[in-house]
Specification:
four-stranded mixed sheet; Rossmann fold; alpha/beta; eight-stranded mixed sheet
Length: 469
């Protein structure tokens, strides 16, 4: 209220704001999953293809993008049955060509490992064809650039793209977009896992692999693939039974046996149930990121955490093999291992970004913590755009950021015995700005933070002590 403009007698109330401006912390783990889905329709039947859509749980995913997983193809069950002289039956199932479309499984993997709200970008219908069209995945990635909320990129079906070079080109585009926007991070799967551990990691780092050396601190890679406890989703009409009954061979379709030979039908179903899909780790890691962020904080490394809904890994990584995965003097590309430990389960045993040789951005938690602080501070400072570029504004901004960083220090996100040891905030004429900066409309703030770093190597030193008495 402009009190000098009052002309009518009466009582007037003026509200005076005494609370300082504050910083609201942004969300840190809102992944965007890009890939093919069984369907892509909203509640009104309109297409969601190419439209980043926020969901909160598995039920919403199934409502918009499909209630069942993509049908597996090429399932056969070999059944041998004898009725005389002694009745016996054996059934063994196999899948000659598992479906390349695993988005439904990946979403279960994400939510089972602690995931919460996320975005789905359906790039097309999941059919029996492959996922080799990287143009569609690139289109989905480009759509996300206009969305501010996503903080993680995941390509669950990426390792099924026909050529490794195409997949890694797509990952490179995702990493570059993360660096451009400075508010998101990419979780990477290793493409080829058919050879030995060292061969697979060498291929990942070499020509034909992720042939890139810039912006690597905006991504982290995980290895190997994981054997899940999920049941395959399939239609009985798509299963062929190679039945040998008392020496007579036939190939009925599974659904016809329900009424004609229920014993064989249920034996075949039981054999298929023993199979389970193997998935890349990226979707599970997105869930682990979200879970660790919510329970411990983004500054806690998403490592030494068990992976849910799995019973084994596809490759057992040894200490020596992980040593070469973790540190590579040549390419610098670190790959985080997922390893079984006796009595502990299967744990994420690595916390490095792809920029493993960088002292600044070596760790996932440090990179993502800075992203969180930068984005939170950026949004909070928007209120000062076009405010007078003077000492009053500088003081408000400095106090706002200092209060925010003090809270983070108290929560254990910053290292230092006192706040002044943990961070600094500078803003002012002669300190961060010149007179010319002010004339040019620039208000410059410098922020330094001593982020906590994970104790990656714990070294215990033991020695003999001589007897003294």
């Amino acid at each position: 209220m402009n009190e000098t403009a009052i002309a009518t007698p009466g009582v007037y109330v003026s509200e005076i704001s005494t609370l300082p401006p504050s910083i609201a912390q942004v969300s840190t783990a809102i992944p965007a999953f890009i890939g093919y889905t069984q369907q892509a329709l909203d509640v009104n039947g309109a297409s969601l293809t190419g439209v980043p859509t926020k969901i909160f749980n598995m039920k919403e995913y199934e409502q918009y993008f499909g209630a069942t997983a993509e049908n597996e193809t090429g399932i056969t069950v070999d059944v041998i049955q004898t009725t005389t002289p002694v009745a016996s039956l054996s059934a063994v199932a196999k899948i000659t060509s598992p479906s390349l479309h695993i988005m439904h499984y990946a979403m279960r993997f994400y939510f089972d490992n602690g995931g919460g709200p996320c975005y789905i970008v359906s790039v097309g219908p999941a059919t029996t064809v492959g996922v080799s069209d990287t143009t569609l995945n690139t289109m989905g990635l480009e759509k996300l650039e206009a969305y501010d909320e996503p903080t993680l990129y995941v390509f669950p079906e990426g390792p099924s793209i026909a050529a490794a070079s195409d997949y890694y080109t797509l990952i490179g585009l995702a990493i570059d977009q993360c660096a451009k926007l400075q508010d998101r991070f990419t979780i990477v799967d290793v493409y080829d896992q058919t050879g030995t551990t060292n061969a697979n990691i060498t291929a990942f780092r070499g020509i034909g692999g992720l042939n890139k050396n810039t912006n690597l601190h905006y991504a982290a890679a995980y290895y190997p693939n994981l054997k899940t406890t999920y049941d395959y989703q399939y239609a009985d009409t798509a299963v062929t039974v190679n039945l040998t009954k008392d020496g007579v061979a036939s190939t009925p379709v599974l659904d016809t046996l329900l009424t004609s030979d229920s014993v064989v039908y249920y034996a075949a179903k039981a054999a298929i149930k023993k199979l389970s899909p193997t998935l890349p780790p990226s979707s599970a890691m997105a869930g682990i990121y979200a879970n660790v962020d919510s329970t411990r904080g983004v500054w806690k490394a998403p490592a030494n955490v068990s992976v849910s809904s799995i019973y084994d890994v596809t490759d057992f990584v040894t200490d020596d093999e992980q040593g070469t995965m973790n540190i590579d003097p040549g390419s610098g590309k670190s790959v985080n291992a997922i390893r079984p430990f006796n009595g502990k389960g299967i744990l994420v045993w690595g916390a490095r970004t792809l920029d493993g040789n960088s002292s600044e951005w070596r760790y996932v938690s440090v990179r993502r913590f800075f992203i969180m602080v930068e984005e939170s501070t950026k949004k909070a400072t928007m209120q000062f755009v076009f405010e007078p570029n003077d000492a009053n504004t500088w003081t408000k901004i400095r106090s706002m950021i200092e209060n925010y960083l003090t809270l983070l220090w108290r929560e254990g996100a910053l290292a230092g015995a006192k706040p002044e040891h943990a961070f600094f905030v500078k803003c002012g004429l002669g300190q961060t700005m010149t007179a010319q900066d002010i004339l040019d409309g620039r208000l410059i703030v410098e922020i330094g933070m001593a982020a906590v770093r994970p104790a990656e190597f714990i070294i215990l030193r033991f020695m003999h002590k001589l007897q003294e008495s």
